[in-house]
Amino acid sequence: MHVIRPDQPEYDGAGTPIQPALTPDLLADVREYSRNGARPWPSARPRVVIIGAGFGGLNAARELGDKDVDVLVIDRNNYHGFWPLLYQVATAGLELESVAYPVRAIVRKHSNISFMMAEVVRIDLAAKLVYTNTVALPYDYLIIAAGSANNYFGNDSLAEHTFGLKDVEDAELLRNTVLSNFEYAVSEQDPQIRQRLMTLVIVGGGPTGVELAGAFVELVNHVLVHDYPMLDISEARVVLVEASDKLLAAFPPNLRANALHRLQSMGVEVRMKTAVAAVEHDVVTFADGSTLESSVVVWAAGVKGAPLAENLGVKLARGGRIPVMSTLNLAEHPEVFVIGDIAYLESQPQGQASYPMVAPVAIQMGERAARNILARLRRRDLKPFRYFDKGNMATIGRRSAVLDAFHIRLTGYPAWIGWLIVHLMFLVGFRNRVVVLLNWAYSYFTYDRSLRLITGLKPEELKPPQPRRIHLTSHAGVDDQ
Ligand SMILES: Cc1cc2nc3c(=O)[nH]c(=O)nc-3n(C[C@H](O)[C@H](O)[C@H](O)COP(=O)(O)OP(=O)(O)OC[C@H]3O[C@@H](n4cnc5c(N)ncnc54)[C@H](O)[C@@H]3O)c2cc1C
User: Fold this and answer.
1) Nearest Cα to 276, choosing from 300, 256, 304?
2) Are residues 222 and 173 in the same domain?
3) Catalytic residue among 188, 211, 242, 335
4) Cα dist. 237→198, 248, 270, 370, 418 in Å?
5) DSSP states of 355-370 as a string?
6) Over the range 358-389, which residues count as b (16 or more CB within 10 Å of their CB) and which as e?
7) Are residues 131 and 241 in the same domain?
8) What is the per-residue pLDDT across 370-419, written as a single tens digit (0 to 9) for each?
């Protein structure tokens, strides 16, 4: 087996590549992978393993495409998820296929990039091995781009009884549950249970919470009102709960005020300075002891580094993120780069707040990490990460958004057009762009959403115990224990 490790003395006196110490077990694993994978691994070139095919990982891979390295991208899913449009899947505006794109279709454009669908369970930094659920893979350079997970701040009741919005399964489950609850409400005789079924609570007034609240209230007011003439739609409530006194905290005050006003005028109940203490079956308890009954509570109030960070053996920074040097690698293991949501780097030159967990940061970090790996192979100096801030935007609903970019601050229709264009540009795949554009045009002109099917993932199959299970017991007499 011919392996070059470029970050160690590479050649002996006779110019022969130095072989790494491969144990029999590791050799067996590597051979197993070589049999299953499209390309042999390891190869004669430096091996770069990238964990995560999200915004960061994919852009790092693209930057390494057709260079003199062999790249292996590993992801638990076989698709790249475009999370900024995920809320539209949850609110029946887009089909899930429109916000996801097969990783293999992206990487096959480069002959030096392979993909493996697997769950990475452990990384041995000392041995330079990535353990997946199936094989162990050696690397010369590693890019960790595993993204983020919901942060419930140690509150088990939140983790257990709220819906998340982190991947397509979450979005599909949320859509199915909301639509199912309206179906059950039709035959529900008890007004209290009916009200609970038609009440949606979203916790967290950041962009995800605001976009979700706006889209849900539009779904109710423009679509479900016609679908369910037998229901008194005025009983339906969309409640947005925010612990601080600010919605969209990253935006300037006038845009925040505009977003609040717009949401309220659309019919969203916005509760500021209201912290959620617990969520049990169908009941939200606030910090002041008051309660609200709701069958669907969405948690959009906190994120932390992906769980993979926790078993790396590195002291983690705030938010369970992996601290990196300005060149995006680890001080103790310079061959390991960490990028995107899972990386913690204080922004330069202020040196106080960390870079936000947003797609542009992940994209630019991916490019910088890849360029630094190439620089290292060419024995050049690594460059520090510099973020080019292109601004913030959030949509609030039909014909309404807020946009803050390059000292331009827009609200309403112009901001909404800007939001549409940017999201279409960054969406991966021509088909997806066309389908999304057609869906948006259809919804815009008809006020309709054609994707309100209850299919695939059902609440009771996936995440028991869920609020709807309680309803099934009381409503249809089904014992769910
Ligand atoms: C609902 C929602 C809306 C958002 N809206 C916006 C927005 O409007 N604008 C914006 O800029 N940002 C937005 N973001 C944030 C943005 O999506 C993230 O900042 C960005 O995705 C981070 O990129 P990443 O590469 O670090 O992680 P991700 O893009 O999340 O990719 C991580 C990848 O790693 C994989 N992975 C994780 N762990 C493992 C493992 N153990 N084994 C194998 N694979 C693994 C995952 O499957 C995933 O594909 C939003 C996020 C969400 C969830």
Assistant:
1) 300
2) yes
3) 211
4) 6, 21, 11, 47, 29
5) PPSSHHHHHHHHHHHH
6) bbbbbbbbbbbbbbbbbebbeeeebeebeeee
7) no
8) 999 999 999 999 999 999 998 899 999 888 999 998 889 999 999 999 99
Domain that holds residue 329: 24-76+118-150+304-377
* Same domain (yes/no): 248, 310: no
Q: Give the total number of structural domains in the chain.
A: 2
Q: Within this chain, do residues 346 and 283 fall inside the same structural domain, yes or no?
A: no
pLDDT for the residue numbered 24: 57
What CA–CA distance (Å, rounded) separates 429 from 144? 24
Q: Are 140 and 165 contained in the same domain?
A: no
Which residue do the tokens 């475009």 mark? Answer: 82
Residues with C-beta less than 6 Å from any ligand 1 atom: 51-57, 74-77, 81, 83-84, 86-87, 119-120, 145-147, 165-166, 207-208, 306, 308, 340-342, 357-360, 362
H or E segment and range at residue 403:
strand 400-405
The residue whose C-alpha atom lies closest to atom 39 belonging to ligand 1 is 146
Residues of 215-251 as b/e, b for ≥16 C-beta within 10 angstroms?
A: bbbbbbbbbbeebbeebeeeebbbbbbbbeebbbeeb
Atom of ligand 1 lying closest to residue 118 CA = 43
335 is an active site residue: no
Query: How far is Cα 166 from Cα 247, in angstroms, rounded to an integer?
Result: 20
Asked if the structure places residue 384 within a domain, the reply is no
The pTM of this model reads 0.87
Q: What confidence category does residue 3 fall into, taking pLDDT thresholds of 50, 70 and 90?
A: very low
Note whether residue 81 is domain-resident.
Answer: no
Does residue 395 sit in helix, strand or coil?
Answer: strand
What single-letter amino acid sits at 164? G
Q: For residue 46, say if its preceding peptide bond is cis, omega within 30 degrees of 0.
A: no
- Mark whether 366 and 445 lie in a shared domain: no
What distance in angstroms lies between residue 340's CA and the mean position of ligand 1's atoms? 8
The 10s digit of each residue's pLDDT in 226-256 is: 999 999 999 999 999 999 999 999 999 999 9
